[in-house]
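Hi support team,

I submitted a single chain yesterday and got back a structure, but I'm not sure I'm reading the C-alpha cell output correctly. Could someone confirm the output below corresponds to the sequence I sent? I've pasted both exactly as they appear in my results page.

Thanks,
R.
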Amino acid sequence: MTSRTARGWKARFTKLLRSSSKGDWEAAFALKSKHLPHALCQYRRFDSNGHWASNLRNMVVRMSPAKSFNDPFDCSLSLDMAVVLGDAIRHRLAASPPPFLDATQAKSLIDGKEDGFALFELMRALELQALSAQPSVRSRASAPFSATEMVSTLETKAANVADRYQEQIAVSCFTTTSTHLTMWSHYSDYHRGLCVAFDLRSLAEDDDRRRYTFPVCYEKARLDIGSWIAHSRPKAMLKFIAATNKSPHWAYEDEWRLVDGSPSHFGGHFVKMPRPVAIYLGCRTSNDNREQARALASELGIPIHLMTLHPKEYQLDARPL
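Hi R., thanks for writing in. Yes, this is the structure output for that exact sequence:
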C-alpha cells in the first residue's frame, strides 16, 4: 500500500470517527478493520526482572497511561474557549433571539466573523443600548459585564476538559514493521531488545482487542473540541479520537494503538493477546538473552528471528534462529 493510499483511507476514517452519527462510527470501525495490517509489531526491552519473559509467556501487552508517554501532547485535545463561546451564542441566537434584537440584527450577528469574546461584548452593548432607549426591555443584569467574566465561569465548569482525556486513556503501541532502524533504536534498547508481532486479523471483528485497535493519524493542528462542548455533540468517540491523533513529527512510526478508555482502567494493566506470529531479536542482543528468548519461543511454538545488517544497504534483514 502506498503512503498516498494510506493517507486517503485514514482521512476518510478520521472524518467518520469525528462524526456525530453512530452509523458513521460503525463505518469508521469497518474501514480500519479492512485495512488492519497482517502483523502489528511491538518493540520491547529485555529487563533483569524477567518481565519480558512473563509477558511473552502469558501473551499479554501492557496498557500504559497516556500521561506517561514521551510526547506531552499525547492523547490531549485542544479547547478554544473563544470558539466555544462563539458557537454557543450563535446557536442560541438561531434558536431563540433575545427580545432586544430584531431578526435582521440576529442574522447579522450569526453571520459575522467575530470570535466569541467580541460577539459577546457586541451583544451586551446592544442589550444596554436597547435598555437605555426602552427600559421595558428586560436585562439579565443591571450593569454591563465582560465576556472575560463569562468565559472565566465557563472555564471553571470545563476545567481541564481537554487534558482530562489524557488522564483517562490507556494505550498499547504497535507499528507495521519489524525492520525499522529508528524504532529499534528508540524503543528496543538500541537494537539490544526484541520485537513481538501479532496478527489481530485472527480475532473476530467484534472482539474488543481488534475493534479498539486504531491507526494513528498525523495532523499539524490539535483537534479543537469546542463544537462538541457548545452543541452537546455525542462524546463517545472523543477518547479514541484523542488517542489516535498526533503531530506529523511522529509519522515515521506508522503507529497503530490498542486503546482502553474505560473508567476503571487508566493504565498499568495488561491485556491478553492472541499468540504472537513471530519474535524478532535485535542485532545487538546479548548471547544470554538470545538463548533465553530462543528457548522460550521454542516452548511457545513461536517462530523467532535475529535481525542482521544488510551487507550493502541501510536496512535490517530477519534471519530465522
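A quick pointer for reading it: The chain has two domains: 3-77+163-320, 81-157. Let us know if anything else looks off.

Best,
Support desk
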